[in-house]
User: Fold these one by one.
Assistant:
Number 1:
Amino acid sequence: MSEASLPHLSAVVVAERANATDAIVAHDLRFSYGAHEVLRGVSFSISKGEIFCFLGPNGSGKTTLFKLLSTLATPPRGTLSVLGQDLREASRGLRRSLGVVFQKPAIDTKLTVLENLRCHGYLYGLHGLRLQERAQAMVELLDLRQYATARVHTLSGGFQRRVELAKALLHEPEILVLDEPSSGLDPGARRDFFNYLLKLRASRGVTVVLTTHHMDEAERCDRVAVLHHGRMVAVAPAAELKQRIGGDVVVVRGAHPEMLWQRLKQRLACPVALIDGTLRLEAPRGYLLVAQIVEAFGEEIESVSFGKPTLEDVFVQLTGQRFFGAGAETDQP
Amino acid sequence: MTELGLQIWSLWQRELKRFARQRSRLIGALLQPVVFWLLLGAGLGGAFRPTGAAARMTYMEYFYPGVIVLVLLFTAIFSTISTIEDRREGFLQGVVVAPISPAVIVLGQALGSTTLALCEGSVFLALAPAAGISLTPAGILATTATMTLIAFALTGLGLALAWRMESTQGFHAIMNLILIPIWLLSGAFFPSVGVPGWLRAVMSVNPLTYAMELLRKSLYLQSLHLDVGSGQTGLAIGVTVAFSLLTVTLAISVARRGLPAS
């Protein structure tokens, strides 16, 4: 489905296009904090069983998007439907089909793992034997058995995140919405956490929607939506996004980037971009350029790197800004 | 219906578990009022020359019901602060996106806090003989019922003020500006007899004054034969019940507006 064409469609058409395979359909979502517009017309559709991620630096609007998806806030403009229902109404039934993992911990660290799960289970209408079974199943699924009766504050960050996930999955939601689920985790724990998401999708077909600013996490999702200053600048599988950059990426750093930029432009046939003090070139067979550049400007260069395009390169190409450094604005006022 | 009950129960028992695991809270809400009672009771005893109903009382005895309300107030304040912490730490956001109504959340919090206040109040009630008050079974029953109403009202007030509040500092300011003066001007600390007219006027529009009066009557109750017929008791019960319903309703309507944007 081509999201690029969505902004031109009316909400009614979008609703008609929404079919049984869509988990979430959004059209022209807008949101402002006072005069500060954080979402400027975002449209997308997410299929059932998909692992979909919103990638963007701080201030891109992804946390606001999460707030809308998790029913913490309602969109003042645009339509957002989940499983064919308008999320604006946020009916109880609809909320029951969502599992939410917040960036900030939403578990009570003074309670044990099982106490947290039970407390949450009651709120979602589970009780008795069914609640016991579900809590036990979650503890098994997320390998928390030996910590089941430990108070949460005694667990490591990675385990606490797993308890969050257990809590969000307890009531068997069809859609899991996560805001920066791996923030504060080391790369190993981040990989582990994502493996649980893959396991979930494989075993029960859960749709996973997450926000992240970790490239490695985004790479593992089925599709990536790149957010920049409240707009969605691209949406596609990570591999496809990277293919759009023709060839290799060469990045040159030097003490005087402006001067080096001028001289490189004169010397080389391919376009050179100066972005936040680094020089970037995209060209097929970029390794040939490396030798050429080092030979000609060896003295002025601090480093030259060469590689296949990464998602960060995609972001740079789409926005003209580096990923970390683009976050001049914050998500909240 | 059972589902609703279990949802409220879930939040109620969480409040209790948290409280039991924070011993400083347990002691803080009880010990400080007791110290106030002993120090002020001893210090002001000589200067206390009341007229009217309290004429033959020591100040320790007069002040005792006031300190019961202070224990309830402090427990309510501690619970309210823990609600602000719940929001800051993130627990509340998980509750807000659950398929439950804001009324359920507020009732769970208010009932949890009321239970705690009642426990603390009951511990303090055991000191009644030291104040020179001999409790009858009827008195204990009526006092417990009154304490429940007062605790519910004060928690409701605290929650209404704190639900959307950004920081505990802000709440401390509100506490000093609203909650403590309401207590001071309820007849807890000094009787309304013999005070300047403007002060008596303020005390007579303070709902806690009526709750205080109901508590005094309950403490000295000899049998369960309530003289509801006598206008004063009826008014005291009416105002106290209305006060608790009003504050909790107010807290629910504040909670309906959701969490603050950031």
Number 2:
Amino acid sequence: MNSFIHPSLLLIIGALILPVVRGPLRKAYLIAVPMLALIAVAMNCTLADNFAVFQFLDWQLVFGRVDKLSSVFAVIMAVIAVIGTLYGLHVDRAGEHMAAWFYVAGSLGTIYCGDYISLFFFWEMMAFASVFLIWFRRRKQSLAVGYRYLLIHAIGGIILLAGIMLRYQAVGNIDFDLMDIAHPEPYTYLIMIGFALNAAVVPLHSWLPEAYSEASFNGAIFLCACTTKTAVYTLARACAGMDILIVLGVIMALYGVIYAILENDIRKLLAWSIVSQVGYMVAGVGIGSDMAVNGAAAHAVAHILYKSLLFMGTGSVLYMTGKSKFTELGGLYKKMPATFIFTVVGCLSISAAPFFAAYASKSMIITAGFEEHLYWPAWLLMFGATGTFLYNGLKLPYFLFFGKNNCSDATWEKAGDPTWNMMLAMIFGSALCVIVGSAPEFLYSMLPYPVKHYSPFTVYHLMETLQLMGFAALAFFLLKRFMEPKDRVTVDIDWLYRNIGGIFMWLVRYPIQWFDTVWGEAYRVVGLHSLMSASRFWSWFDWNVIDLIVDGIARTVRAIGGKLRVVQSGQVQYVMFYASSLAAIVLITLIVYHIS
Amino acid sequence: MTNIIEFLQAHLKVVIWCCLGTLLGIALFSVSIDTSHAHSWVEQHIPAYWSLFGFIAAAIIIFVSHLAAKAGLQVSEDFYERSVIKGEEEEQ
């Protein structure tokens, strides 16, 4: 069988049917639908062409562009649909699963599409479906956070749409392919910015830490996987080789490190970590060489695996204790030993520890930087990698599972390993992290370009990693008092747009309101008085001049009519007399006029 | 698992010395490996370069973060809520 099956269609139909599937069938159905989507994606991997092509008005819509780049991203999105659904299997709110499936469907639709029209449709589907994963947290602030998230993504969508329209006007097609980055036009940058916003490129990133830390415990699994990595895919597809992405990627990698180090909320720390890790991918896309794009794709796959595992570990803490701050947790290894082990696997994976996921991917991007003689980005990315190990490999497990026990009695009482399905999802996640890190050949075979002359399993790379991690750990234990989590939040660029909103409200409330009041008073005093005087004059003029003329004419006509009425007796002899008299008068007048 | 961790915690000094010994071993072993194919001069010529890099980079990141927090990057938890509540009160 070699026909294309769109996994988004399966997920969307599955989501629409879900509310009517109740009782014991619900859980089986919840597993079956994403599994079918995964099977469809796996079968699509054997294909290589454009499928599901439709003519719409003047455009050709391509819903199924299958090549190696789209396949590798589609596989990992489908895998996360299975793991994420399994993790939240006990959640009985159908709406939450529906939102998650629509969200993954949007992501898969974007990955498989070959034109900008269908891309925009699936792009917006992602934004509108994912916001429900925030709202389903149902906290007081969830609604506001969700609206801010939606607002930012709507702005990003408008920028993207503007780029798409300008591009269509310039080149006359809607093909979603690599743009002419050697001769960038305004639309090139608009499209890049639209994609970059979803990739949380600094300074367009503030939506991510706020939204992902506020998502429901299972919604965060989908959120951490789909939006940013789909954006990385679109950047790799359309903007590979744009130099500015190297700069932005490096800034992201370092910016995320500083904020993650300072963060007190365990899930917000992971969200900052996404900003940092996506920075590596964005830099890889910016470098644009075969190895760099391979590295970006491989790191996206590894990142989705370990980040979802970390969100599952911290989500388990949140689910069981109701707490997510270091200052309210600590020492949990005694109560949550299995969760501790899975989280540590995630921590080692993100830290690129030997034989764990990112070991096979992160160094590929950095090596590509060195090979392209981009030394400063490569060094800075290495510097950032040290930071990644600090906050994720050391700070997170140390202050959450060891360190000072800040748990209240109630929190400690509630702490424990979570339900079987959550554990099973974490087992799968952990296993995949170890498999990708230990035997990356399968992953490498799926990458867009052939992987030649690269292996992470060299003695030099191994020793480099062990030295880096070992001595960074030494620095951590010597200086960890400077990293103690505090009950404080970190001000970010969102301060700016929150304040822009505040400034707008202040402007409306004070100067604009004042101007409106003054204008109203001036109108009442000056404008209204003038208008009343003018009205009174025109009323007088109408009454005494217009009416006088009109009424005078009417009275004159009536008087003449009265006189004429006398001659209208109705008798023929009088009529003939008047007519002949009138004719005689006219004749005499003409004769006199003619003679004179 | 819990028992192993508690055992290690009970023998913390031994654990620390073992870790330091391992670090020293890694650093010494790194000197003996071939660095001729490394990408940069510093990797090729400075012994145990990545040990130094790891320690210094971690220390810099910790201090920079600490200084940034002190410089005003970290604020009280109700920093944003205060302005919202203030605004709501004014509206009432």
